[in-house]
Amino acid sequence: MTPPQGPLPVERMCDLAGVSRASYYRRWAATAPREEETALRDELQQLALAHRFYGYRRLTEAVRRRGWAVNHKRVLRLMRSDNLLCLRRRAFVPATTDSRHSWRVVPNLARGLEVAALDQLWVADITYVRLLEQFAFLAVVLDAFSRRVIGWAIERHLQATLAIAALRMALTSRRPPQGTLIHHSDRGVQYACHDYTAILDAHGIRSSMSRVGSPYDNAKAESFMKTLKQEEVDGRAYRDVAQARRGIGMFIDEVYNRQRLHSALGYLSPTEFEAGRGGSAALGAVATASSSGGCH
């Protein structure tokens, strides 16, 4: 069944566009199933994050209640492809995190740390971004003191090169002195693998990872992701990863870093705060907010 086309019949629209009805239906058959699957995967992502202990049978019932005609086998296949099954066993693990690996997991060095300067603590995270017919994944690195996004990358895969690209951008823009910086992330394979940790070691950066099942250890990064989803991603219909890269890049560089006011920064933007316009009042606000981890 084709979607509504307005007051004009399909035959008339094809005549106006100079295409045959057969071409129209071939195009519709090629794109509509992919769009339908992307919408279903988005529903499953939302339900899995809202009900972290639900298995595929409960999620099947939940998605049926939202009007989807789908069986448990298809739900199981999509959950496996999106790495959602791990959410059943442990709370607070996002779908973008695969912590089932043999790489070394380092202690949490950021817990209780009072951040008092730039390039003292960087926080990193990964989230998914829905496109029209698929998903992309965004990796970010923030300076925990100023809340500024100093590195980011978006691709259609979850390989370590995604997180590495964001890290290299941060290193290029900041060039922190060796031995002064802690890099904090979750326990995902992208951050624990040798390729990533070797870059940290080469720059004299100490690695830190969140505790199991705690959403608070990386609160600043997760707060940015929430802001990004609410103020940029939600309501958008990115055609492809290139359009998402442009839109999200514009939001990060022009809106979030330069314009968005943060209560934790004395109602300055991260760029203004780093430029020193906040004076002692803003510095005091950050010192107070650093332990709470919020980004408002």
Overall average pLDDT: 81
Order of helices and strands: HHHHEEEHEHHEHHHH
* Secondary structure category: alpha/beta
**DSSP helix count?**
11
Contiguous runs where pLDDT drops below 50 for at least 5 residues: 1-5, 86-98, 277-296
Measure the end-to-end span: 45 Å
Major beta-sheet overview: 5 strands, mixed
What is the count of β-strands?
5
What portion of residues belong to β-strands? 5-15%
Q: What CATH first level of the largest domain would be assigned?
A: Alpha Beta
**If you compute it from the alpha carbons, what radius of gyration comes out, rounded to the nearest whole angstrom?**
22 Å
| Shape by Cα distribution | globular
CATH homologous superfamily caption of the largest domain: Ribonuclease H-like superfamily/Ribonuclease H
CATH topology label of the largest domain: Nucleotidyltransferase, domain 5
> What would you say the CATH architecture of the largest domain is?
2-Layer Sandwich
